[in-house]
Amino acid sequence: MSIPGLNYTRKGNVGHHAGYYNIVHSNAARLVYYFFESRERGDDPVVLWLTRGPGCSSELAIFYENGPFKFADDMSLVWNNHGWYKVSNIIYIDQQLLLLYITRNKT
């Protein structure tokens, strides 16, 4: 795996996926989501993280709150030893239309 700025050493079997979720009846608008598997991959719960508020993005939680990575002082990415990915599968979704990465099919 290659993430710019991250000296990546896999910790256990942490899997991840990111992509878009199509919004029904929205002329092809899509929500951005990020999914991180639990380190244990057992019967850990699934947490759905939705940050809400003006100027807030769920992506901020990935790097500044409970996600698997955080920024070091030199702005490189390092593992967050207190991330919720250790005890749960976690999905981060940006749900505010003004803050979403929205793509549209050009017709």
Class per helix and strand makeup: mainly beta
Oligomer: single chain
Domain tally: 1
Instruction: Please provide the ordered H/E string of secondary-structure elements.
Output: EEEHEEE
* Biggest sheet overview: 4 strands, mixed
Description:
One of its GO terms (molecular function) is serine-type carboxypeptidase activity. It holds the Pfam family Peptidase_S10. This protein has one domain (16-93). It has a 4-stranded mixed beta sheet with strand order 1-2-6-3, with helices on one face. Strands 4-5 form a two-stranded antiparallel ribbon. Helices cover 7% and strands 27% of the residues. With 107 residues, the chain is mainly beta. A hairpin with a 5-residue loop joins strand 4 and strand 5 (77-79). Residues 1-6 have low confidence and may be disordered. The protein is globular.
Question: Descriptors for this entry?
Answer:
Peptidase_S10, 4-stranded mixed beta sheet, disordered N terminus, globular, serine-type carboxypeptidase activity, 6 strands, mainly beta
Task: Give a short summary of the structure.
This protein has one helix and six strands; from the N terminus they run E-E-E-H-E-E-E. By secondary structure, the chain is mostly beta strands. The chain has one domain (16-93).
List the helices and strands and how they pair.
Layout: E1 16-22, E2 30-36, E3 46-49, H1 58-64, E4 69-71, E5 77-79, E6 89-93
Parallel strand pairs: 3-6
Antiparallel strand pairs: 1-2, 2-6, 4-5
GO biological process, one term: proteolysis
GO molecular function, one term: serine-type carboxypeptidase activity
Family: Belongs to the peptidase S10 family.
